[in-house]
Write a structure and sequence with these properties.
Layout lengths: L1 H4 L3 H5 L36 H16 L5 H8 L3 H13 L3 H14 L4 H13 L3 H13 L9 H13 L3 H13 L11 H13 L3 H18 L1
Helix pairs in contact: 3-4, 3-5, 4-6, 5-6, 7-8, 7-9, 8-10, 9-11, 11-12
Length: about 230
Amino acid sequence: MASSLHPNPTTFLQPARLQFTPTSIATRVPIRCGPRDKRGPLVKGRVLSIEAIQAVQALKRAQRSDLDDPSPISKTLSRLIKSDLVAALKELLRQDQCHLALQALAAFRSEYQPDVTIYAEVALALARNGMVEEIDALVSELEESGGVQLGGDDKGLIRLIRAVVGADRRESTVRIYEMLKRNGWGTSSFKADEYMVKVLSKGLRRLGEAELSDEVDAKFGPQLLFQS
């Protein structure tokens, strides 16, 4: 009788089982981070120094604060060593900050002689941003600095020609051809690059300079046949 009045102690101490009602299963939505603007990707292998990064940031701040006072921009550029100045210039071009890039190029030209690759990269950025008149000024600066030097970077020269032709700058294309001739292009001692000849000839013809295009073919056609 006594045992019936008291429940089993083991059963009494056993915790109650909790039952869970299944809920809806959460769906995972992948999140992809895209670029914040239209700037191009960093070139593989390019690492900007802290000085170059700080210079780019300072230049952009100075441009926003006072467009009429170029002194802060000039001071920032004058503090950079050659490698950092080139890195800052290329980063500005990558971000399509062409006005600042032109000032960086001017600072570079005041101390060093830019190679044709730098001119090509600036011309490509200017063409991409519709700053075609600045391309003419760029080619004029190249001519004043001594023109295109032969026997150097043919790839950079080809890129420059393609950028100028692509921007439909007829006079600048003719000017590049004249610079090449003054520096020995077309002489027997200079071996012409076949692809460069084709790019220049087609570019001149496209821009309405058929006679100059024929002149290029006449001068370099026999050389190319002899080389092949």
